[in-house]
Design brief:
309 residues; alpha/beta; Rossmann fold; 2 domains; 13 helices; 10 strands
């Protein structure tokens, strides 16, 4: 038997690069359980639309929900006591019916199936991960409506914004890797940096900053370049701070960085006066990502040390 014949439907569809896009209907009280479902779907290769990631602040909320449902290939309804009582979850389901979108119920609590879902397929997620496998199997039978890779949810702008930065990265080619690395760096930076801010009108990104005696300075930026999402260490900015005013200190950072990178991505010595930038995918290895964090942590600690006058 050939390897392709043995592949599960989801793997075969992923190989064709034509995975359906899934709208998640849920109650906000069930965010933790919903995140488990989202992780399983994204791991399997599905595009996912969920309100707490895709609706921007200040946007027309109802319009965003409608657009999300209109652009999806199927709806997964996370059913619990809270969502059973939610008028909005019911409306999302009925709107999906109106558009003839497949609706699959993910049952996460001991509740009666409401009348409008009685005849709808449901997957029982109350008893461990077997229900997730059942859900993935049900979704594998769904045919995408559009062309492969043409999915840009209405609430995920074609330009990255603060509110949709990570979903934007994840929709790019190879964005699953860049998105994971960016999320990891973002949450880590919020723990060790004094502030993490979004900025950059033309090339949006987030920037981890450390406060030192002469004021705040960025120690790393993550940029949402469409072709190549990247990490950047602004050595030219560090050059204005006492611990790194000398080139030797900045070249030491550069040497540590080069040890993490493939030969073709290593930086020349004069990059110590610039902003060495490299693809996030080069940090997909967990060990390299931790070593990169170690470089940044050392920079932060040295910046915070009182300087001799």
């Amino acid at each position: 038997m050939s390897s392709s014949a043995m592949a599960p439907p989801s793997a075969t569809r992923r190989a064709r690069n034509a995975m359906p896009n899934i709208f998640i209907s849920h109650s906000n009280e069930d965010n933790q359980a919903t995140l488990v479902i989202i992780e399983a779907l994204r791991t399997a290769g599905y595009g996912v639309w969920v309100d707490f990631e895709n609706i921007r602040g200040g946007s027309a909320w109802i319009c965003e929900l409608e657009a999300g449902i209109e652009r999806c290939d199927a709806v997964v309804l996370v059913l619990s006591a809270a969502s059973r009582q939610s008028t909005w979850v019911e409306r999302e389901c009925l709107y999906a019916y109106q558009l003839r979108k497949p609706v699959i119920t993910a049952l996460i609590a001991d509740v009666l199936i409401p009348l409008h879902l009685i005849n709808i397929q449901y997957c029982d997620l109350r008893g461990g991960r077997g229900g997730l496998a059942q859900l993935l199997e049900a979704l594998a039978a769904i045919q995408p409506e559009g062309e492969p890779n043409d999915y840009v949810p209405a609430a995920v702008s074609r330009q990255p914004l603060e509110a949709n930065f990570f979903p934007y990265l994840e929709q790019l080619p190879s964005g699953d890797v860049a998105g994971l690395v960016a999320r990891d760096l973002f949450h880590w930076a919020r723990q060790i940096a004094d502030e993490v801010v979004f900025g950059g009108a033309v090339k949006p990104g987030f920037h981890a900053r450390v406060r030192c005696e002469s004021g705040p300075v960025s120690i790393v930026s993550v940029w949402a370049f469409r072709r190549r999402p990247s990490a950047q260490i602004p050595l030219d900015l560090l050059a204005t701070r006492a611990p790194f005013a000398g080139r030797a200190a900045r070249r030491d950072i550069l040497r540590q960085l080069n040890r993490l990178l493939p030969r073709q991505w290593r930086f020349p010595a004069d990059s110590c006066d610039r902003r060495p930038t490299f693809p996030l995918r080069l940090l997909s290895d967990a060990e390299k990502l931790e070593r990169f964090k170690g470089i940044l942590l050392d920079i932060a600690e040295r910046l915070r040390q009182p300087q001799l006058r």
